Amino acid sequence: MTVVPPKSPRPETNGAATVPPARAATKAGESSDPASASASGSFLARAALVTASLSIAGSLLGLVRDQSLARLFGAGSETDAFLIAWTVPEFASTLLIEDGLAIALIPAFSMALARRARGAPGDPVRALVSATLPRLCLVLAAVAALVAGTAPYLVQALAPGLSDPRLAADCTRITATCVLAFGLAGYCSAALRAHRCFLAPAAIYVTYNTGIIAAMFLLGEGLGVRSAAVGVAAGGCLMVVVQLPSLWRRLASPESPVAGDRAAVEERPVQLALVSAVLLFALCRQSQVLVERFLASGLPSGAISHLNYAQKVAQIPMTLSLMVCTVTFPVVARALADGDTARARSRVERDLALASCVVLLGMCAVIACAPQIIELLFERGAFRASDTAATADVMRVYALGLLGQTLVGALVRSYFSAGRASWYPLGAMTAGITATSLIGAATVRSWGVAGIAAANALGITVTAALLLAGLRTGRHESPHSVSVRGRQVLAELSRLVCAAVAATAVGAFTASRLPSPAAGLTAGLLTVTLVFVSLAWALGAQGSASALRSLRAVTRRLPHGRFR
């Protein structure tokens, strides 16, 4: 979806530079003009709605994918072998689509668009693509070949206690192709989001999961769990195909520069230091999966599967909560490109409040209704009642880290939104991974998979606290960086956490009173929502108010059931 941003009736100045009237407010996402600011807020709300809708569809298909995997192959050694191979696409997704290339490339494309808008010679956007895409393809192809060639050694390093390493190695060779496919998909997503086009990037996980599901049912009888690996490879290709038409249109028909405004904009190519800092942070963050599966490989068969199913369900609220940051990250990057740090800070603080509100509401539902959710989603075919109980217990513990996961995903974008290298996030993530490893190693023997989940929650919370401390006002004096008011953010989080604790307790009690899992889940979800929203509103949490404003902005545009 491409939405034409509203135009401001007069120029806006930022320091010494004059920002074009049609660009300054709209590309930064806000304006000092009330009418333009309202329209821009409506644009962001509609973009977030479309992105969230497709993300929900992708997440639902992800659940269908996991249900299909559980039904066809259960939670035993065969599934464990595939999940070890699935480490490759999980890493590739984080590094190349979510926290890696997007964080590095969106500021670069935003700067190129700013230079194009101000009449820079040539086409800065096409020049950026020509300078970066061919090299990226060569590097990704080499990495994919290396992963496929060293698959047996990777499996041995990831899960030394795995019962069927040959099957895991076969699946790893197949999934290695996603390194190149995910890299191209992430590149297209970053370019399109910088252009304010969110429809195609939001649809990639719909096509990805569709490919996996289709492959499992079409090829599962003959290939076994290897069919899921084939689906990963096919789904990665579909992620690229679904975005290419939109990107080609924008590169083939660029917008005309603003007439009469030739103000210089700093030209900053994508720096190796920036890419290294972003990718090393993403790699360090994703290494949580390595720690978890390494520790779980020594537990009884099925432990890795229980942890995987628990994570996939529990992460849905986090994924939805970060949709607002996905939409507004180009806004923050463009604001910093224009030198407006105050606008960038305001946007980041509102995003933190709204994302925390969404994820805590989801966390309440996951903890309160865990047994009912897992039973309804997975307990059929090869997935037994004992698997339901084990997975629900793990999911409740894992969900305690969802707020930390969301804060890390939201805060790290602020460190790189100006397109400059920062090594502080890597240090913060290293501290969190160290805590996860030490706590997990100390608790896995006594608590099993629950100890691994607890270590994950504590480790990511440590990282979130360090990232928030690093962004507090006063530490960054640069006109090209974002700072947040730490006390206000912590006060907002404390209100939401208090509401979440009460809502979880009441919701769990309500859900457990009904014998039917469907009735218990329905009653639990309704109770959690009512209690959380009421308490958050009563305590004055800004996140709930932001959610209502966003909803009103959307509904004002839908008086007849469609966008105007």
Helices and strands in order:
Blueprint: E1 12-14, E2 17-19, H1 24-28, H2 34-73, H3 77-85, H4 87-98, H5 101-117, H6 124-149, H7 151-158, H8 165-175, H9 178-194, H10 199-202, H11 204-223, H12 226-241, H13 244-252, H14 272-296, H15 303-321, H16 323-337, H17 341-368, H18 370-378, H19 385-398, H20 402-416, H21 424-447, H22 449-470, H23 486-512, H24 517-538, H25 542-556
Antiparallel strand pairs: 1-2
Description:
It is a single chain. Helix 2 (34-73) runs parallel beside helix 11 (204-223). The chain is 76% helix and 1% strand. Mean pLDDT is 80; it is low at 1-38, 258-265 and 551-564. It is globular. It is mostly helical and 564 residues long.
Mind describing the biggest β-sheet? 2 strands, antiparallel
Radius of gyration: 23 Å
Average pLDDT, to the nearest integer? 80
Q: Which percent range fits the helix content?
A: over 70%
- The strand order across the widest sheet is 1-2
- Low-confidence region ranges: 1-38, 258-265, 551-564
* Individual helix count: 25
Work out the number of β strands: 2
Strand content: under 5%
Distance between the termini: 13 Å
- Helix vs. strand class: mainly alpha
Q: What is the N-to-C order of secondary-structure elements (H for helix, E for strand)?
A: EEHHHHHHHHHHHHHHHHHHHHHHHHH
Question: What is the general shape?
Answer: globular
